[in-house]
Design brief:
Order of helices and strands: EHEHEHEHEHEEEEHEHHEE
Structural class: alpha/beta
Radius of gyration: 19 Å
Helix content: 40-55%
Bound molecules: calcium ion
Strand order of the largest sheet: 2-1-3-4-5
Shape: globular
Oligomer: single chain
Strand content: 15-25%
Number of strands: 12
Amino acid sequence: MPEYKILIVEDEEAISHVIESILSANHYVPLCARSGGQALALANAVQPDLILLDLGLPDMDGVEVLRRLRQWDQIPILVVSARDQEKQKVEALDLGANDYITKPFGSSELLARIRAALRQRVISLSNGAARPQRYAAGGLTVDFDKRLVRVDGRDVHLTQIEYKIVEFLARHPGRVMTYDAIMIHVWGPYLTDDNKILRVNMANIRRKLEKNPAEPQYIQTEMGVGYRMAEEDSLS
Ligand code: CA
C-alpha cells in the first residue's frame, strides 16, 4: 500500500493535532503548515498527495492559498470550513477544490472524503487524456458516446438540458459540483444567480432516475452548495 503524504493546513494547533493523529493511525503521512505562506512553501517542497486546507488562516485567505496552489498543480484539495463560511466554501469549489468538509467532523467522515479524493486522483492519472466513455453506479448507466441513460436496463428519456446536467455530474463522480458550475456548463454565463431553473430540472431528472426522488441514491443534494453524483460502483 502506498504511503500518501497529506499536508494539513490549519492554524489551530489542537485541531491540527487531532487530524494528524487520525491520519497517522490510518497509515497516512501527515505534514503540517500553520499558515498560508507555509502551506505554499511546503506544498512546493514535499509534493503532497493531498492537501487539507482550512479556509480561516491568519496570514492569507484560504481561498487565496487555493488560487495560488491551483496555478501550478492538480493535487487534490479538500477544503475544511466552518459553518459560517458557506460563501468561501462555494468559491473554493468553483476554483477547483475537490471537496469540502465542515467543522466539526468525525474521523470516519474525514477518512471517507480523503479516500474519495485520492481515488479521483488515481482515476484521472490513469486515464491520462482519454475521457471515460461510460458511467455506472448501481442500476444507472450513462453512455457518453451514445448519449444514452439507462436505469435497471430500461432507457430513460431525458430532455437535452436534463441530459447535459446528468452528463456533467456523471463526468465528475463523487465530486460536488456547485450550482454555478452546473449552470454555466449547461446554460452558459447567466445574468441571474437564481438557480430555480436548475432545481426544477433536477426534480424532473430525479423523477425519471430515482426509485424514490425524495431519497435519491444517484444524485445527492449538498445544501446551499450543489449536487454530487454517486461514485462509480459505490452502490450495490
Ligand atoms: Ca482556522
